[in-house]
C-alpha cells in the first residue's frame, strides 16, 4: 500500500524531525535579509565585499559538507543534529553583537558549516525511520517545509527589518534553532548505523567510499548529472530576475510578487507529487520532463522581455507560478531516488557529495549569467538558458531507455545488511 501524502507523519520520529526542520530551516533563511541590510545599509560595503559574502555563504556546503558527512555516518545522527542546532544558537547570538566584517564572515561560514553537517544527518534519519514505500511522500513533505521557509524566512526577516533593527532577526533565529533542538531531543535513540569496526577505518577511506558509491549506481549518477546540469542552466538567470522585471517595465514590487508566486507554486507542486497515488513514471523521467517545462517557461519569459509576447504581470505570474509548480517533480523525485539508491550507512556521505556538486553549479552559474547579460542582454540569457534546458533534456531522454534496460535497479537496502 502506497499511502497518502501525510502517511509519513504517522511515524513519530519523522513527525518530530519535520517539526524540528520547520524551526531549523526558518532559521537558515531568516537572517539573509538582515545580513544584507547590515552589510549594505549600515556598513556601506561595496559590490566586492558583497560578492565575498555570497561566496562565504555557500562555500561550506561545497567544501565542508562532504568531509563532515563522514562523522555524520559514524556517530548518532540525533546527537549531531542537536549539537549543530545548539552551535548555531551561539553563532547567531555572535552575529547579533559582531561589528567587524571579517568576524562576520567567519561566523557566517561556521553557521553554514553546521548546516552542511545537519542536513546529511537529517537525510539519514529520514532514510532510516521512514518505510521505503513512503519515502516519496516524506520527501514531498520535507520539500514543502523547505520551500515554505525559504519564502517565509526572508519575508519575516523583512518584516522585522521594518519594525526594528536588523540584529533582532538574529535573536528570533536563535530561538528557532533552540526550539529545533528541543524537538529533536524527543527523537528515539538512534540505532547504530555502522558496525563498530567501521570506526577504525581511515577517515579518507570512508570519505572515498561515499563518492565511490555514486559511481557504482548508474541510475543515481545519471540523476546527479541531470540535476546538476539543470541547476547550472537555471541559475544562469537566478540573479537576473529583478533586472528582467525592469526590462519588462513592471513596477518595483513585481519581482517580490513573482518570487512569492514561485514559492506558492513550489508548495502546491510538492503536495501534488506527494499525493500522487497512481504508479508514477520512473523518477528520472519526471526529472527530465520537469526540466523541459522549465526550459519552455524560461524561453517564454525571455521572448516576453524582447517584446514578442504581451508584457502583462498577471500572465507572467502564471508563468512563474508554473515554474514553481514544476520544480518539485524534479527535486522530490531526485531526493527519493537518492535515498532508494543509497544504503543507510552511506546516506550522510552520499547526500553531502550530491549537495556539494549541485551547490558548486549554483555558485558558479550566476556569475556566468551576469557576464552573459552584459554581453548579449538579459532577455537572450533567458532564451539561452531555456533552450539549453530543453536540448539537454532531449539528449538525456534519448539515453534514458538504454540506461534503464541495461541496469536492474536493486533497492539499496537489499544490497546491504549492516545493522543499525
UniProtKB/TrEMBL annotation:
Family matches, as CDD domains: MFS_MefA_like (cd06173)
What are the TM regions of this chain, as residue ranges? Answer: 50-72, 169-188, 218-237, 257-276, 288-308, 314-338, 350-372, 378-398
Cited InterPro entries? Bacilysin_exporter_BacE_put, MFS, MFS_trans_sf
Q: Which UniProt keywords apply?
A: Cell membrane, Membrane, Transmembrane, Transmembrane helix, Transport
Topology of the protein relative to the lipid bilayer:
Multi-pass membrane protein
| Location(s), subcellular | Cell membrane
Protein's UniProt keywords contain Chaperone: no
Specify where it is mainly localized. Answer: membrane
Q: What is the top-level taxon of the source organism? A: Bacteria
What Gene3D superfamilies does this protein map onto? MFS general substrate transporter like domains
- Give the protein name, as stated in the record: MFS transporter
Source organism of the structure: Polycladomyces subterraneus
Amino acid at each position: 500500500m502506497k499511502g497518502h501524502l501525510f502517511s509519513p507523519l504517522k511515524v513519530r520520529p519523522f513527525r518530530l524531525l519535520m517539526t524540528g526542520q520547520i524551526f531549523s530551516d526558518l532559521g537558515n533563511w531568516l537572517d539573509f535579509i538582515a545580513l544584507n541590510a547590515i552589510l549594505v545599509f549600515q556598513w556601506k560595503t561595496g559590490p566586492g565585499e558583497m560578492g565575498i559574502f555570497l561566496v562565504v555563504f555557500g562555500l561550506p556546503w561545497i567544501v565542508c559538507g562532504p568531509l563532515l558527512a563522514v562523522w555524520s555516518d559514524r556517530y548518532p545522527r540525533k546527537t549531531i543534529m542537536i549539537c549543530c542546532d545548539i552551535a548555531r544558537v551561539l553563532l547567531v547570538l555572535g552575529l547579533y553583537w559582531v561589528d567587524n566584517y571579517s568576524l562576520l564572515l567567519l561566523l557566517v561560514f561556521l553557521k553554514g558549516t553546521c548546516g552542511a553537517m545537519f542536513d546529511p544527518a537529517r537525510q539519514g534519519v529520514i532514510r532510516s525511520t521512514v518505510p521505503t514505500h513512503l519515502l516519496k511522500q516524506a520527501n514531498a513533505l520535507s520539500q514543502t517545509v523547505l520551500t515554505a521557509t525559504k519564502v517565509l524566512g526572508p519575508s519575516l526577516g523583512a518584516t522585522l527589518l521594518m519594525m526594528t533593527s536588523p540584529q533582532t532577526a538574529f535573536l528570533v533565529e536563535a530561538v528557532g534553532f533552540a526550539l529545533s533542538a528541543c524537538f529533536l531531543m524527543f527523537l528515539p535513540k538512534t540505532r547504530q548505523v555502522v558496525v563498530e569496526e567501521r570506526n577504525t577505518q581511515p577517515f579518507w577511506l570512508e570519505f572515498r567510499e561515499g563518492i565511490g558509491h555514486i559511481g557504482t549506481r548508474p541510475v543515481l549518477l545519471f540523476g546527479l548529472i541531470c540535476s546538476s546540469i539543470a541547476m547550472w542552466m537555471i541559475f544562469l538567470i537566478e540573479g537576473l530576475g529583478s533586472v528582467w522585471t525592469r526590462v519588462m517595465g513592471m513596477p518595483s514590487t513585481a519581482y517580490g510578487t513573482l518570487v512569492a508566486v514561485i514559492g506558492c507554486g513550489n508548495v502546491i507542486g510538492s503536495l501534488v507529487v506527494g499525493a500522487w497515488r497512481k504508479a508514477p513514471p520512473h523518477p528520472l523521467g519526471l526529472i527530465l520532463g520537469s526540466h523541459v517545462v522549465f526550459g519552455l517557461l524560461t524561453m517564454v519569459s525571455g521572448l516576453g522581455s524582447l517584446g514578442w509576447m504581451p508584457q502583462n504581470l498577471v500572465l507572467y505570474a502564471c508563468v512563474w507560478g508554473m515554474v514553481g509548480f514544476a520544480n518539485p517533480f524534479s527535486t522530490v523525485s531526485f531526493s527519493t531516488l537518492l535515498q532508494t539508491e543509497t544504503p543507510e550507512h552511506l546516506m550522510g556521505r552520499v547526500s553531502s557529495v550530491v549537495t556539494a556538486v549541485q551547490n558548486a553549479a549554483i555558485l558558479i552559474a550566476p556569475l556566468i549569467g551576469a557576464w552573459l547579460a552584459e554581453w548579449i542582454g538579459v532577455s537572450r540569457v533567458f532564451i539561452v538558458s531555456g533552450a539549453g534546458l530543453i536540448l539537454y533534456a532531449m539528449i538525456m531522454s534519448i539515453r534514458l531507455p538504454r540506461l534503464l534496460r541495461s541496469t536492474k535497479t536493486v533497492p539499496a537496502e537489499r544490497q546491504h545488511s549492516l545493522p543499525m
